[in-house]
Amino acid sequence: MDEAELSRAFPIGDGACLEAVIGRYGQALLRYCHHILCDYHEAQDAVQDALLRAWSRRNRFRAGTNLEAWLYKLAYHACIDLLRQRRRQLFAPPPPSGHNPDYIGPELRAALSVLTPEERGLVFGRVMEGRSYEELSQIYGPSAAALRKRYERARKKLALALSESELDEQKEVVP
């Protein structure tokens, strides 16, 4: 099923439609949630929760609209719910095992901690997934122009945090 067919079939959906949605969007949603939560197991929980919400609320989805954006919005809210519910350290480093393309080093992890979950999701969407501002506006709600400005602010915050961490490292080296 292509995206348009899936978007039309999802509100009516059967088990095969759900399998198609999971097959098409599951891994991308997992990467997205992992970059917001920085914990693989929590990301799995968030994706499972988002897909469960999507399936149980499929009658609310308007056929023909952007299914992917709706799923990302549900995944984002599932991540926010987990962050509120667990109220714990967000950036415990994942155990590095071999080459993991989703692994974020401790310097970047610390710098990302200054961003809000929405800002992290926005940076991830632009940098890691190459999404346009129009696509991101369907996920987050504000206009593309507003998101462009938010992204620029988040990018500057991240750059400042990274430069501060480099300065801290230099201070530790120089007596």
From TrEMBL:
Keywords: DNA-binding, Sigma factor, Transcription, Transcription regulation. Residues 22-88 form the RNA polymerase sigma-70 region domain. Belongs to the sigma-70 factor family. ECF subfamily. GO terms for molecular function: DNA binding; sigma factor activity. The lineage of its organism: Bacteria, Bacillati, Bacillota, Clostridia, Eubacteriales. InterPro entries: RNA_pol_sigma-70-like, RNA_pol_sigma-70_dom, RNA_pol_sigma70_r2, RNA_pol_sigma70_r4_t2, RNA_pol_sigma_r2, RNA_pol_sigma_r3/r4-like, WH-like_DNA-bd_sf. Coiled coil: none annotated. SUPFAM superfamilies: Sigma2 domain of RNA polymerase sigma factors, Sigma3 and sigma4 domains of RNA polymerase sigma factors. It comes from Flavonifractor plautii. One of its GO terms (biological process) is DNA-templated transcription initiation. Residues 107-158 form the RNA polymerase sigma factor 70 region 4 type domain. This is Sigma-70 family RNA polymerase sigma factor. It holds the Pfam family Sigma70_r4_2. The keyword Transcription applies.
